[in-house]
Each structure stands twice: as structure tokens, then as C-alpha cells.
Amino acid sequence: MSDRVEAASSRFVAPVEREKRLWKPIAARIFGKNGDQQILIRNLSVNGLQATCESALTPGETLTVTFLDGQILECEVRWFRSGMFGARTNKSIDLKSLLS
Length: 100
Fold this sequence. Notes:
The chain is mainly beta. It has a single domain (19-99), classed as Beta Barrel (Thrombin, subunit H), CATH 2.40.10.220. The protein contains 2 helices and 6 strands; from the N terminus they run αββββββα. The chain has helices at 3-10, 95-99, and strands spanning 26-32, 35-45, 48-52, 62-67, 72-81, 84-89. Strands 1-2-3-6-5-4 form a 6-stranded antiparallel β-barrel. Strand 4 (62-67) and strand 5 form a beta hairpin. It starts with a helix and ends with a helix.
């Protein structure tokens, strides 16, 4: 095998299996360094969410998310782009209670 082919094959990374997502719009509120604002969650997994918001957020920023059913979670912003962000929660989200 040539060095070029061998180097390429050694960089192969197996795909990471992602958690199942709930694709349902859900209104919630966040509180972070820019204050309180309403968000619209686009999808959820037991350990994270993707949502739209009005103010820019910073990766690494800690947010408090309050759902309409009363669940309150702390999460960390993982990414922000054009009014959308992804966050990882510090504990599991009770998806069943959000659907009822």
C-alpha cells in the first residue's frame, strides 16, 4: 500500500450514533447573560436541544431553560449561527411530560 493510501485509511473515523430527536416546535424561555428571552425549540433529545432566539448567544454560555410544563434545566450553548443555537443539558429532559 502506498504511503498516501495508508495515511488516508488511518484517518477514518467511525460515525457517531446520535440520540433520537423529537421534532416538534415547543415554546420556552431562557435566561442567560443577555437576560430573559423567549425561544422556539425546533428539536429535542434527552440531553440537548436546538432552538431559535432573538439575541446572539456564545458557545460555552450557561442558560436556564424554563419549559411551559414547569421543567427547568441548565444547559450549555454548544453553537450559535444566524439566530439558531444548540445546547447540551446538564440532566435528561423528560420528553414524555413535554408531550402531554
